[in-house]
Amino acid sequence: MTPTNATVYPPKWHWQNPLPQGNYLSDIWGSSSSDVYAVGGAGTIMYYDGHVWSAMASGTSRDFEDIWGSSSSDIFAVGADGMILHYDGISWSAMDSGITDCLFSIWGSSKSDVFAIGCESILHFDGTSWSILWKPVRDEVVTSTDMYSLYDIWGSSPSDVYAAGRHGNSGVILYYDGNNWTAMHGETGTAITRIWGSSPLDFYAVTTGGSLLHYNGNPWISISIADDISVGTIWGTSSTHIFATNTEEGTILHYDGTSWSPMSGETGAGASVGAFWGSSSSDVFAVGAVGAILHFDGASWKTVSSGFTTTALFDVWGNSSSDVFAVGTEGCILHYDGKSWNLMNSGTDRLISSIWGTSSSDVFAVGAEGIILHHNGKVWSVMNSGTDLNLNGIWGSSSSDIFVIGSKSRILHFDGTTWNLMYTGYTTGLLDIWGSASSDIFASGADGTILHYDGTTWTRMVTPVYDSIKGDPINGIWGSSSSDVFGVTTRGEILHYDGNTWSVMCRSSSGPLKDIGGSSSSDVYAIAMEGAILHYDGTSWNTMNSGSGNTLRAVWGTSSSDVFVVGNEGTVLHYDGK
Length: 578
Prior knowledge:
0% of the residues lie in helices and 54% in strands.
């Protein structure tokens, strides 16, 4: 059995961090200050009505790269696999591009004169259909030194269009005069990733090395802003109002027609900004990594998006739907009270990899270099673990019967007073632990290993993926009972234990599976990289649309309508079934 490709849309998973969402935003465009659109990873399209940002239904989970429109009812978005979507003012619909290569940029002079570029194609839309306007002509088999990759396009009119990118190992800009495409003189040594201008005799290009080039009708010249400046992207409203990012310092720069200078305000996210757009020089938006949205009002930049952390979160657990904890890198511990998430003071900067507890005043967290923390309902304190090995998972049957697993098959037991080392006889690294009772505990790990504890001894179970040399790591383990236990592997296998034997239940095409959990035998979730979530309803596994493109690492919930998932970039998703 393999999971179906059926996708639940719109997603019933909702972002809780970052807000309004946490996928990277690759580009932004608008028809006015109250009609703005941003696109990005995992099919993300965000809309701003002048007051709030909200998600739009794109109908895809593929990545968007660029967006452009001629009006509020004529907008194009392009991206992976030759994808072109069109918005008519009511809904987004797919267009036939005729190619399967990624499209990186789109621009037009009108609704019947639109250009889209990709690896080795320039497409044109005449108001009715898309066609290939340009492809390289070759007499011989193409080699890597003759390949084109086009990344950005800009123009001032239908007969003055520029496509920038790479030709072999050099940067290239192709010029369109309304009839033919020709290469401009003065190719650069590195690829050109961004291009923008105010007129045919005043435009700029940015290279992969962060160099800024300028064209004024004469040969291209290199613009030196300062020694520590590496430009990431560029855009402007006129020749005297140009915005660029300095990726070295994470700042936003402004050019007034005479000189470049750093801008004031909350521009610390400048290093992650990938695109600008504005309705005027005093109404400019910037978007970028982790869903970042910034706005410039003519005086200073302010962050519009919000988030309490962008660190990777490794585990989530709760005592109830209004008492949930998430842990991750840099000692990060978050708490959710049913309304909002807040950072807690963990007292450490070590990675915290797992969390579990018996109540809101009896919570344990474990992590790197043997750290074990305990929360008494008020503060976190360090416990003596007796080891400096990495600890990866924790589970218990009561406050005086808790198990922790980690590197080299290290298993610790807490009797309510002290932590003690348990003897297993194995050395395989362990990654996760779950049990149905104090005499029925499963620990999974490297090489396809699953150890079982019967209340007296730990023994290795027979699994279909075990191999002491090249076995597939079992990253997560969870069950609804002693005869209904699930495991997930790096190769995408979902394992099941029926009380007697382990078997491969299905193989996922979603890549390495990171964790598994659920609320019952007919409500199980397996999570993976790039936002993949699989759901088991007791009969079959189906793919869910999480709305995220980030790597997901842990899942926990109280019921089929109250499930939390956490992952990289501070991702926190919640499923309410609605």
